[in-house]
Amino acid sequence: MLKIGIKFCGGCNPAFDRVAAVEKIKKGLEGKAEFVPLNDETSEMVIAVMGCGNACAELGETREKQIIIISDIDGADAAIEEIKRKQKV
After folding, report:
1. How many structural domains are present in the chain?
2. Structural domain span for residue 80
C-alpha cells in the first residue's frame, strides 16, 4: 500500500479549507493509500497542502520524495487522480 505524508503550510492566508481537502483526498484513496506522519521514513510521497496560490511553505525536508502540491480545493481531486494514475492504485 502506498504511504503518503501530509505537509501543511503555516495557514497565514488560507483561501480554502485545507483540512477538508485532505479529508477528501483520504476518502478518495481509502483502501489504496495509508497516510503517515510527514517524518515517517517509509513514506513514498508527500502531499503539500498550501492554503493559497503563493505556495510558499518550505519543502526541504521532503525533497527526496515525490511531492504533489495543492493550493485550492480543486487540487484535491487532481491529486487523487494523479496518485491513482502514477501509482496505478
Report:
1. 1
2. 2-87
